[in-house]
């Protein structure tokens, strides 16, 4: 029988990671986000290139397919609800993204470079240095990406956009940013004093500041469960 504590810790950690994956919508914009204006010189991109867009707390990845098209994995509930490609192809809203994460559904979709980058700067093949001789041919990487386009399962920890691109370009699905995040969290919470301090801060927030338990309790229990799992 599997130990329920590590499983609970994994679920809690996925919910915590969700907080850093949500894209902020402009104030008053309603559901549909507006892509920040910008120009991307796609002449420097080659078919099969691995593109990275650094965000505030994470990096989004995609595979360039040529002709201003990028294949990338996005959590999205809509492919599970409809087959209408006109609706699915619209820019993924925060609501669609969050519901996709909760239900573990996603799609590998093809968007323009502008929609993929969402106004951010783009790095090209920045991960090649980590894989050395494992880089597949550019055409092979692009074909792998094209073959996988469509609905897919999703997990913040085990099957995200980085897993998708590393499989396409290097032949092995890995996520360095997820690994680093998990290790950093475990290093902090392995110290029992950090766990105790976190719990005390959470309790103080409820008692002294009047914060809602539904908001504060995750701050108390996430470090505890992760420490137990480590």
From TrEMBL:
Active site: 161 (acyl-thioester intermediate)
UniProt-annotated location(s): Cytoplasm, Perinuclear region; Endoplasmic reticulum membrane; Late endosome; Rough endoplasmic reticulum
One GO MF term attached to the UniProt entry: phosphatidylcholine-retinol O-acyltransferase activity
First-listed, main subcellular location of the protein, grouped into a coarse class: cytoplasm
Gene3D superfamilies with a match to the protein in the record: endopeptidase domain like (from Nostoc punctiforme)
UniProt pathway annotation: Cofactor metabolism; retinol metabolism
UniProt-listed PROSITE patterns: LRAT
Entry keywords, A to Z: Acyltransferase, Cytoplasm, Endoplasmic reticulum, Endosome, Lipid metabolism, Membrane, Sensory transduction, Signal, Transferase, Transmembrane, Transmembrane helix, Vision
EC number annotated for this UniProt entry: 2.3.1.135
Reaction(s) the record says it catalyses: 1,2-diheptanoyl-sn-glycero-3-phosphocholine + all-trans-retinol--[retinol-binding protein] = all-trans-retinyl heptanoate + 2-heptanoyl-sn-glycero-3-phosphocholine + apo--[retinol-binding protein]; all-trans-retinol--[retinol-binding protein] + a 1,2-diacyl-sn-glycero-3-phosphocholine = apo--[retinol-binding protein] + an all-trans-retinyl ester + a 2-acyl-sn-glycero-3-phosphocholine; 1,2-dihexadecanoyl-sn-glycero-3-phosphocholine + all-trans-retinol = all-trans-retinyl hexadecanoate + 2-hexadecanoyl-sn-glycero-3-phosphocholine; all-trans-retinol--[retinol-binding protein] + 1,2-dihexadecanoyl-sn-glycero-3-phosphocholine = apo--[retinol-binding protein] + all-trans-retinyl hexadecanoate + 2-hexadecanoyl-sn-glycero-3-phosphocholine
Pfam families the record matches: LRAT
Signal sequence extent: 1-24
A GO BP entry: vitamin A metabolic process
Transmembrane segments: 195-228
Residue stretches making up the LRAT domain: 50-177
Bilayer topology: Single-pass membrane protein
GO cellular component, one term: endoplasmic reticulum membrane
Listed PANTHER family: LECITHIN RETINOL ACYLTRANSFERASE
Protein family: Belongs to the H-rev107 family.
Function of the molecule: Transfers the acyl group from the sn-1 position of phosphatidylcholine to all-trans retinol, producing all-trans retinyl esters. Retinyl esters are storage forms of vitamin A. LRAT plays a critical role in vision. It provides the all-trans retinyl ester substrates for the isomerohydrolase which processes the esters into 11-cis-retinol in the retinal pigment epithelium; due to a membrane-associated alcohol dehydrogenase, 11 cis-retinol is oxidized and converted into 11-cis-retinaldehyde which is the chromophore for rhodopsin and the cone photopigments.
The protein, known as: Lecithin retinol acyltransferase
Species whose genome carries this gene: Heliornis fulica (sungrebe)
